[in-house]
Amino acid sequence: DHLVRLMTTAFGNDIEDLAINGDTDNSGDPFLGIMDGFIGKVQNDGFANEAAVDQGDANWTVHDLQKLILAMPRRYRALQTGLKFYAGTDTFANIVKNNGTTFDAIGSTESARGSYFGGVAQTFGGARQTRVLGVDVLEVPYYPADYVDLTFPQNRIWGFQRDITVNRFYVPKKDTIEYTVFVRFGINWEEQDAIAFATKPSAS
Asked: In DSSP terms, which residues pair with 198 in a beta bridge?
């Protein structure tokens, strides 16, 4: 049971990494070169909305995130309550620790800051989250450190074939057991025009 849990966790992590970072054109990793992932489609297809953020440093300020919102077409901006920012672990930490982002996001008064840090309007549980400009920021560990996008959660489409095949093979000479898993799955965006994204130089 312990080995099965380890294998299924590793398999799930690999699938998530491929679905996010797969790139058939620019990946030097044969595994990530299998298919284009969500980010690869956003950056290569040309249908998403790229925000012109400040490239002077790697800090993600409230002004940079505001530009992501403004890059989104008006018809999607009107549904702001459903939008979410998605950022990798390093970028998420950068957003959280950035004082300008935090204070501008929660209000300019001392009482507003005190209320926010006391826990009002914060989101807990599940994935790590914070809020900027009234929009949730979700941490996605497999996102690259220099990339943030803004979209609706339901905009991502995952498709899995029902049958998943697991083959077990014993190698007597090595006294080992090899497991091979076969799965067919695909990903796509429902509407790439409902995505705003931006990249920055990676933090040193």
From this structure: 148
